[in-house]
Design brief:
Length: 85
């Protein structure tokens, strides 16, 4: 009897935890106010991005909005890493 109870607890915990790991449905969320229906540059802020990913996003913004966005390098850091503003 005790083994069945323990197995059922583990099974229910597994089901609950595995369902929480599934991606959430986009239909459950509203778009932010002012969000365009077809944006020129797609980006998702519900995950962590690498430096290369953010740099790519910035380059796409510069291409999509050349009058508003300009990438520039303030110089090199001591580790010879080029950063962009």
């Amino acid at each position: 009897m005790k083994k069945i109870f323990v197995k059922s607890i583990f099974l229910s915990l597994f089901v609950l935890l595995s369902s929480a790991a599934l991606p959430q449905d986009d239909a459950l969320f509203f778009d932010a106010a002012g969000t365009p229906s077809n944006p020129k540059v797609q980006v998702s802020w519900n995950k962590y991005h690498t430096y290369a990913g953010i740099t790519d996003f910035c380059k796409k913004l510069e291409e999509a909005y050349p009058d508003l966005v300009t990438l520039s390098s303030p110089g090199n850091h001591s580790r010879a890493v080029i950063s962009m503003l």
